[in-house]
Amino acid sequence: MIKGLLEVVRRYLAHHADATGLAQTPIPGLTTIRSTTPSSLEYSISRPLACLVLQGKKQVTMGTQTLTFEAGDSLLITADVPIVSQVLQASVETPYMSLVMDLDPAVITELTLEMHADAAAEGAAVRFQPTDTEVADAALRLMQLLDRPESVSVLHKQRVRELHYWLLAGRHGAAIRRLGYPDGHEQRIARAVTLLRAEFTRPLPVERLAAVAGMSPSSFYQHFRNVTSLSPLQFQKQLRLIEARRLMMAEGVSASSAAFAVGYESVSQFSREYRRMFSQPPARDAEAMKHRLQN
Known about the structure:
Elements: H1 2-16, E1 22-24, E2 30-35, E3 42-46, E4 49-55, E5 57-62, E6 65-70, E7 73-77, E8 81-89, E9 96-102, H2 105-115, E10 126-130, H3 133-144, H4 149-169, H5 173-177, H6 185-199, H7 206-213, H8 217-228, H9 232-251, H10 255-261, H11 267-278, H12 282-294
Antiparallel strand pairs: 1-2, 2-9, 3-8, 4-7, 4-9, 5-6, 5-8, 7-10
């Protein structure tokens, strides 16, 4: 079934991939990815998702945990966490390809109740397992809707729900169920993360974030760190630095302009923190990235 899914994804990417190898589908939350070369390190703060690797090999690091996975594996991320990723194996003849489905907490809540599933224990926010046959089969049926565009608006919700069901029923089920409890720590922290993502350029006192999560400041701080591996301030700082890097790479913005755009008041502080995260000063990093893209 992975082979059939690979061919459908390959065909879709051939017609719809952008210059970076991404092809967002008309189905909300469903993305296909292709890379024809091994990549440099890519920094992001991921949302909860399931990534089905169809060809090639990739590595993801969160904190001290590094995972290497390949064709036939599924990567699961169950919280908004900072990750560093890198495509390890890809070529023009055999590109890296994957299918990514954002996990929908509302669908997970509904299915968890209907399945009468027990509450899940705490566990790592990033993990991988071999892809279940039923998951690959459901993903293939979802992708096949794209061959009949008129069917997408009518059928995509039930097929997205089916994919979530098989994820919950399979190897990843216990980890995914944690996203389905509205009063669970993951969902409370997710509400604060939504605010951080929306207003990361502004000062955000921990008291305000804790109130959004419905927790005391001390309890919020502890649970935020347990879920995301960062303090709220570190999380906000990474959001700022990742966006500043995007502005410099994609829009040609200067380092000082990027610093002010994401909320820094001091360019020197921005440069120090940028170098600490990306291992190079902003201008040198931007120049190196430009050189890699040209080659």
